[in-house]
Amino acid sequence: MTAAPVAEVDLGDLGFGRGAHLLVQRALAGLPPGGRLAVSGRDPALRVHLPAWCRRRGHRVEWPDRGEASDLVAVVVRGSADDDRWFGAERAGPALPSALSSRPPARWGLGARGALLEAGGPEARFDLDERDLVWADIAPHLYAQAAARQWDPQTAVPWDDKFALPADVEAAVVQVMTYLVENEQAALVVPARFVGRIHPHFREVVQLLAVQMADEARHMEVFSRRALLRGAEMGTSSAGGRQSLFTLVAESDFALASFLLSVLGEGSFVDLLSFLHEFAPDPVTRRICWLAMQDERRHVVFGMAHLEHQAQLDPLLRDRLRAAIHRRHDALVDTAGLNADVFDALVVLAAGGWHPNDVSAGYDRVQALQHAMDQGRQRRLVRLGFRPDEAAALSALHTRNFM
Amino acid sequence: MPAPTVLLGAVAYDPKVVTIWEGFRAWLRGRGLDFDFVLYSHYERQVEDLVAGRIDAAWNSPLAWLRAERLAAANGTAVRALTMRDTDQDLTSVVVVRADSPVRQIADLTGRVVAVGAIDSPQATLIPLGHLAAAGAAVDVRRFDVGVGLHGDHIGGERDAARALAAGEVDAACMIDANHLAFVQEGTLPPEGTRIVAQTARYDHCNMTVRAPESDGVRLFGTLLLGMSYADPQVRPLLDLEGLTAWREGRTSGYGALAEAVDASGFYSPDGRVTATDYRP
Q1: Is the per-residue pLDDT at A1 higher than 50?
Q2: Residues B280, B148: contact at Cβ < 8 Å?
Q3: Using one digit for the tens of pLDDT, what is the confidence trace for A87-123?
Q4: With an 8 Å Cβ cutoff, is B26 touching chain A?
Q5: Are A52 and B181 a contacting pair at CB < 8 A?
Q6: What are the respective helix, strand and coil percentages of chain A, to the nearest 5?
Q7: Residues of A in contact with B177 (CB under 8 A)
Q8: Is A49 in Cβ contact with B199 (below 8 Å)?
Q9: Which of B81, B34, B73 is nearest to B51 (CA)?
Q10: Best mutation site among B230, B238, B240 for testing chain A: the one with the most A CBs within 10 Å?
Q11: Given CB atoms, is B92 within the 8 Å cutoff of chain A?
Q12: I want to staple A143 with a disulfide (CB 3.0 to 4.6 A). Which of A208, B1, B178, B210 is the partner?
């Protein structure tokens, strides 16, 4: 004698070859293990497919006597496998970033934040897994802003505008563009090295860095394209400049890399792009420097935000930042730093002419740029908690390569 | 006192067999059973080694179970089905035709070409052909010998038979019920493009065959298998790979149809010798 079914489902003409399992599954979900479901239907293969499907899912099938005109196929007794699969399952933290885990476990791995995770699976180790080491509350907002402000290099720049520059001014533009490409390459590679190490629980930071990399990729494109707009040769690249940039790429500590790149390097870079925007001799150069400057400002804001957060929690952070500046300075002390060709090209662009008075004025403007860069670095260092006199001393140790 | 031991034989019909038994091995050893396994390239040697005492347990196809039973009896010993998967109980096979086929019932298949799996496939050859013969249908058989010696564990022969049906090369094809559903879902057979004209009675599939009487190790093995829970995240992926949600006590009540087919076709002799003429595992 078997107990009466407590639930029924009628599949109509729908067969298992076309999704009938969804109706059965839905009906079974409302029953406890051991619960009984009477399944009716008219698909000719149902008596073959229903038990085959149930067997694989751990459900039992009973074959009651069917009346003459009945569509009743079988009674399914719900097994426990569906529940057992989710025994010990846990949420991978909150879906929204309002209450992030301070240290998400490795077992959450690549599971979407907030997803219900089946127990088991790999221990996927992401070594940057401490909230305070990577997070900033502004990250989701900055990511949304960054995603919204992506621009198309093809349409955002007036590539076809008519202009002609004297050969030596064009050469100065080409030299500066060559230097900018070199810097943007470094600025892309630095976050790229960290993206794969950050726990996906902090996905907004990963997303932000990914967009930051896309920013740098666009910058590399437009600066290269401007350099080659009127000719076929790039400018020069100094050994010291490349060495300076490589010290950024080689830094494996996320906070220190972020400090050197975003707070000191990109901060100064924003000043440089602003300078180039002001003194660009043509509309294409002016436009690409302005576009890149908007992106770089965002990078600085994020770098500052998460370091400010960290500096409040960790009084020793400033010691590490200080040491990082000294270490980089020591590593570069024997190099010439900035490519002299770049410095001269900046003077030429700021001079706007070859009269000695023009050159003198251009020279003063580049001096003023370096002063503005220094002041900016000092301001940011003070915001991170350094005393003004120490901020001044540390800023002075920054690489002559600007970045 | 040394830990109880079990040496299991399993047939390597697929690379996943290594993953499954490596995983089970670690789990069983963690529970006090000194468990190890050896892999065979076909069932016949595995069965002979079980009966000869070279292994303690054989993860056997239903056909291999029948042969083990016969060899043991001829030998004056006995074997037992220790456990089986929940998914090994109450299977059926079906005979399928194209939807537009004039074949309506088994009798209509007489004189027509029926595609089957490998020569030693219980579910796609031996049982359904036995079913047709018992119903009096004299059919021409077209066999798809993929993975001979694997007793139909390799799905290739069944799938090739289904493909031949879809291509119009044969009038009907035999397959296990779950594979009819799978072939429709994966597109090997067109949805609603086939019709089931015959379904066998329910039968059982694999079992964990052991010699009687059982050793302490084999008894512990059975207890541990039955204790494996689908709720355990360590074994669940292995159970998923092996295609079960729970181990059940072994039973041998579901092998009658296969035994009749084996006798009718002369696949094995009553004392367990391989007598099928063109069977080369």
Answers
A1: no
A2: yes
A3: 999 999 999 998 999 999 999 999 999 999 999 989 9
A4: no
A5: yes
A6: 60, 5, 35
A7: 48-49, 51-52
A8: no
A9: B73
A10: B230
A11: yes
A12: A208
Question: Rounded to 10 degrees, what is the CA torsion of B262, B267, B268, B269?
Answer: 90
Q: Which amino acid is at A101?
A: S
Q: Looking at this protein, which amino acid is placed at residue A130?
A: E
- Return the residue matching tokens 């179970």: B65
Confidence of residue A18 (pLDDT cuts 50, 70, 90): very high
| Residues listed for chain A | 403
Give the closest residue to B200 by CA, choosing from B165, B166, B175.
B175
Which strands sit side by side in the sheet containing A72-77, from one edge to the other? A7-10, A36-40, A72-77, A60-62
HSE-up of residue A348 (Cα within 13 Å, Cβ side)? 18
Task: Burial-class residue B118 by CB neighbours within 10 Å (0-12, 13-18, 19+).
Answer: buried
Distance from CA of B87 to the nearest CA of A (A): 5
Q: How far is A9 from chain B (nearest CA, A)?
A: 20
ipTM: 0.93
B34-40: strand order across its sheet: B34-40, B5-11, B57-60, B207-212, B78-81
What's the predicted TM-score (pTM) here? 0.85
Predicted local distance difference test score (pLDDT) of residue B192: 85
Comparing CB atoms, the residue among B87, B180, B192 nearest residue A56 is B87
B25-28 CB contacts, 8 Å cutoff, 24+ apart? B27/B228, B27/B234, B27/B235, B27/B238, B28/B221, B28/B224
Query: Tell me: the pLDDT tens digits for B14-72?
Result: 999 999 999 999 999 999 999 999 999 999 999 999 999 999 999 999 999 999 999 99
